[in-house]
């Protein structure tokens, strides 16, 4: 099962090697404004799923929110350690 750290390593590799079929590369190239809109969209979907949907649907939306947060981190060049030290 993929963890938050493993996904971050995978996305870091995508950003470095820039495969043409990578949605992450496209999201990074789209810039912080587009990345932020996606993050907010996913946050809203998490809220709605928490109110109205089943556990698996909620888990899916949360996974997408975590992915979008990682895209923002990568776009800014943040490391996991910079975030984790605030936990
Ligand atoms: N975990 C994710 C992930 N979560 C969400 N998403 C993206 O977010 C989309 C879902 O968001 P929405 O609900 O907004 O759906 P949508 O509006 O139809 O999507 P888009 O039009 O924005 O593509 C998915 O279609 C993906 O594009 C993700 N894209 C990639 N990953 C993982 O990231 C890794 C690298 O992916 P690539 O960069 O694409 O190779 C792989 O392991 C993937 O599993």
Automatic annotation (TrEMBL):
What is one GO cellular-component annotation here?
cytoplasm
Its subcellular locations are:
Cytoplasm
Keywords of the record, alphabetical order, are: Amino-acid biosynthesis, ATP-binding, Cytoplasm, Histidine biosynthesis, Hydrolase, Nucleotide-binding
Kindly indicate whether the keyword Heme belongs to this entry. no
Q: According to its UniProt record, which reaction does this protein catalyse?
A: 1-(5-phospho-beta-D-ribosyl)-ATP + H2O = 1-(5-phospho-beta-D-ribosyl)-5'-AMP + diphosphate + H(+)
The organism's place on the tree of life at top rank = Bacteria
On whether Cytoplasm is a keyword of this UniProt record, the answer is yes
Q: What class of enzyme is it?
A: hydrolase
A GO molecular function for this record? phosphoribosyl-ATP diphosphatase activity
Q: In which pathway does it act?
A: Amino-acid biosynthesis; L-histidine biosynthesis; L-histidine from 5-phospho-alpha-D-ribose 1-diphosphate: step 2/9
Which GO BP terms apply?
L-histidine biosynthetic process
Entry-linked InterPro entries: HisE, PRib-ATP_PPHydrolase-like
Stated EC number for the protein is 3.6.1.31
One Pfam family of this chain: PRA-PH
The UniProt similarity line reads: Belongs to the PRA-PH family.
- Could you tell me which NCBIfam families the record lists for this protein? histidine_hisI, PRK00400.1-1
Q: What is this protein called?
A: Phosphoribosyl-ATP pyrophosphatase
Encoding gene per record: hisE
């Amino acid at each position: 099962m993929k963890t938050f750290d493993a996904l971050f390593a995978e996305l870091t590799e995508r950003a470095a090697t820039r495969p043409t079929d990578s949605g992450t590369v496209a999201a990074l190239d789209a810039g912080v404004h587009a990345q932020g809109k996606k993050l907010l969209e996913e946050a809203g979907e998490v809220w709605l799923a928490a109110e109205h949907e089943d556990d698996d649907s909620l888990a899916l939306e949360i996974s997408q929110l975590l992915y979008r947060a990682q895209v923002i981190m990568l776009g800014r060049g943040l490391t996991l350690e910079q975030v984790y030290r605030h936990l």
